[in-house]
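Q: Please design a sequence for this.
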């Protein structure tokens, strides 16, 4: 993997202060967490230094401005996303295609189109091949997901027609003109004589299988129509999970059908003896279908399979999650849109009520900002006490003013800096906005690590080139630092279930599994800066602290009232 360092500065005069924008070195081609040990003396998540010329994208010279560096970083993230898909998709797709096509070719070339006892033997790899082809799909491949669902729909519909045709043929066998003395029947070809009870049981089984495959076809049709109708509200991850479950049910029905059919043939085989190879192949196909179907019902099989392949590819990077967050936007277009919509608020304009979700806030506090001119990205959970967040923010603000000759910091706060009329479109700009802030201040309360957006903000902040030491943890009252370093993305929540599915897909794209994401994020939090020591407060600050404590008691009382 290529590592690079780029440092750019843009200055603006204000009160005799010169602001510098330094884009730190980054590692976009790094291996997944836990797959490669870092060199001696280097933190596994901190960037490594390298010549500036290595930070570039095809056809262009080395970036020399913040915009060019961001374009190069996003291009590297997009390349990492493509490498992740190739590492996961092509091995599964190649193996699945071979196991699916070869049985058909062998059957037509060796066994022939007619039914025979050897027909089942070449088809033994078929369920595994179909399962691998389905498991090769990732949530980011929206068109491929729809194509796979349509293929399974056509397959289920074809199976329904074939089984129903066999049911009609069996009904003709049971007519009087084909019945022999002793309640025996002859098939349509006049080659096999068997007890009519076999055909009656087979007819019932055919009707049951016809109903099962018809329901499966209808279920696939409903899923596809729902995806087309609710494209914006139905996440791709949920759609893929629905496809996997329906494929699993189809395999379970196939396994049960093959098993019952083989048992019937062995029970009613009076005049003929079934070959042992046919019986063994039927039982093996039944067991294989049941096991494969059971595995397809669990989403963890897909995640573990794709994560295992991604972890063994040297070209896979955790930056693939940033590519998934970008959506389908081109790096150049995304940078242009993000820089045009980058906003910030002066810290002295913020008030306590701005941290309360149920209070109205003015929409004209934020001003246009340039990359690097924003001192911090405020990361917080709306479910934590507003007064505690306000007190910790004021503590950070006092420390910043003390270190910068009294200059007021500019901060990014979601309430004022995100266009509420186009939240989904603005969220694609989040990587650039995070890269344009010098540090991230996490106002971490009891619910902070249980909010999925908060975890994704920290992950994206580091992936966009910042060091983990640029993360400032500010634990709220009653929260210990150690409790913030244990995260679980699976148990994290979002206000919108659609956002949760999308964010989980981003974590999967970057790390292959939720466990790997948790481990990497835990290392970031352990490398974060501890909260600054308390400073001597002025009389005005003491009044502010008293009002914050009163507001906290009022907020807790309202929470208890609403819960009761």
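A: Design:
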């Amino acid at each position: 993997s290529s590592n690079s360092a780029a440092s750019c500065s843009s200055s603006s005069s204000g009160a005799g202060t010169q602001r510098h924008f330094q884009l730190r070195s980054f590692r976009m081609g790094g291996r997944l967490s836990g797959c490669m040990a870092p060199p001696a003396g280097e933190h596994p998540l901190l960037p490594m230094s390298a010549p500036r010329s290595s930070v570039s994208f095809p056809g262009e010279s080395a970036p020399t401005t913040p915009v060019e560096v961001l374009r190069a970083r996003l291009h590297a993230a997009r390349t990492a996303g493509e490498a992740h898909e190739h590492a996961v998709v092509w091995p599964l797709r190649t193996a699945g295609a071979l196991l699916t096509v070869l049985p058909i070719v062998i059957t037509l070339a060796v066994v022939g189109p007619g039914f025979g006892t050897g027909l089942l033997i070449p088809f033994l790899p078929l369920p595994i091949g179909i399962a691998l082809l389905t498991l090769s799909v990732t949530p980011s491949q929206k068109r491929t997901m729809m194509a796979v669902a349509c293929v399974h729909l056509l397959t289920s519909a074809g199976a329904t027609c074939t089984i129903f045709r066999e049911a009609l043929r069996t009904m003709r066998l049971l007519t009087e003109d084909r019945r022999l003395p002793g309640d025996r029947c002859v098939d349509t070809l006049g080659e096999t004589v068997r007890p009519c009870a076999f055909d009656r049981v087979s007819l019932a089984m055919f009707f049951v299988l016809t109903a099962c495959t018809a329901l499966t076809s209808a279920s696939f049709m409903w899923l596809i129509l729902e995806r087309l109708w609710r494209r914006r509200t139905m996440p791709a991850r949920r759609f893929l999970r629905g496809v996997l479950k329906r494929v699993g049910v189809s395999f379970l029905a196939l396994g049960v059908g093959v098993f019952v059919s083989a048992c019937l043939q062995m029970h009613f085989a009076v005049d003929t003896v079934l070959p042992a190879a046919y019986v063994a192949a039927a039982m093996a196909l039944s067991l294989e279908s049941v096991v494969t179907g059971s595995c397809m019902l669990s989403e963890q099989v897909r995640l573990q399979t794709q994560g295992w392949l991604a972890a063994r590819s040297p070209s896979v990077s955790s930056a693939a999650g940033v590519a998934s967050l970008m959506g389908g936007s081109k790096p150049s277009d995304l940078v242009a849109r993000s820089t045009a919509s980058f906003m910030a608020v002066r810290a002295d304009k913020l008030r306590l009520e701005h941290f309360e979700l149920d209070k109205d806030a003015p929409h004209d506090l934020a001003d246009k900002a340039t990359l690097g001119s924003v001192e911090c990205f405020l990361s917080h959970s709306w479910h934590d006490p507003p007064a505690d967040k306000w007190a910790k923010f004021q503590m950070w603000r006092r420390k910043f003013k003390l270190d910068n000759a009294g200059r007021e910091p500019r901060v990014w706060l979601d309430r004022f800096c995100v266009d509420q009329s186009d939240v989904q479109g603005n969220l694609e700009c989040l990587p650039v906005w995070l890269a344009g802030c010098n540090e991230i201040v996490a106002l971490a309360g009891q619910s902070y690590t249980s909010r999925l957006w908060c975890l994704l903000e920290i992950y994206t902040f580091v992936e966009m080139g910042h060091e983990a030491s640029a993360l400032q943890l500010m634990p709220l009252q009653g929260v210990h630092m150690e409790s913030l370093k244990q995260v679980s993305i699976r148990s994290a929540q979002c206000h919108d279930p659609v956002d949760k599915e999308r964010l989980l897909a981003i974590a999967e794209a970057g790390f292959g599994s939720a466990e790997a994401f948790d481990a990497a994020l835990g290392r970031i939090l352990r490398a974060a800066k501890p909260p600054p020591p308390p400073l001597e407060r002025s009389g005005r600050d003491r009044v502010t602290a008293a009002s914050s404590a009163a507001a906290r008691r009022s907020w807790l009382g309202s929470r208890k009232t609403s819960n009761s």
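Q: Thanks. Anything notable?
A: The chain is about 55% helix and 5% strand. The first helix runs from residue 66 to 111.
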